[in-house]
């Protein structure tokens, strides 16, 4: 439940399986093709879109931002819903949220 203008931070971690290469295929080329990288990014984005939309609805979250990083490469950074619900400002991949009291849970 959200109280007042508090924001709920939601962190989604995705593990994206990568296809295993056969020994013959790996001899030909180890570098991914541009089409393969683009297809992988689209696949990751579609999966994240689905998960994010369900999270917005299920937990009544006004907005969230998800970043997917693989081997130090940013695969996706995308916002969903609103960063500021009252002002109707959309969430973006580079949105910085005010965490407020939720950060106390992470201190020890």
**Major beta-sheet overview:** 3 strands, antiparallel
- The secondary structure category is alpha+beta
Q: Give, in spatial order, the strands making up the sheet with the most strands.
A: 1-2-3
Averaged pLDDT: 74
Shape: globular
Query: What fraction, in percent, of the residue positions are helical?
Result: 25-40%
Query: From the alpha-carbon coordinates, what is the Rg to the nearest angstrom?
Result: 18 Å
Explain what the structure shows.
The radius of gyration is 18 Å and the shape is globular. It has helices spanning 23-28, 34-58, and strands at 63-70, 73-84, 89-90. The longest helix is centred in the middle third of the chain and has 25 residues, at 34-58. The protein has one domain. Helix content is 29%, strand content 20%. It has a 3-stranded antiparallel beta sheet, covered by helices on one side. It is of the alpha+beta class and 108 residues long. The model is unreliable at 1-29 (pLDDT under 50).
Quick structural gist:
With 108 residues, this protein is α+β, with helices and mostly antiparallel strands. The chain contains two helices and three strands; from the N terminus they run ααβββ.
Features:
2 helices; three-stranded antiparallel β-sheet; alpha+beta; disordered N terminus; single chain; 108 residues
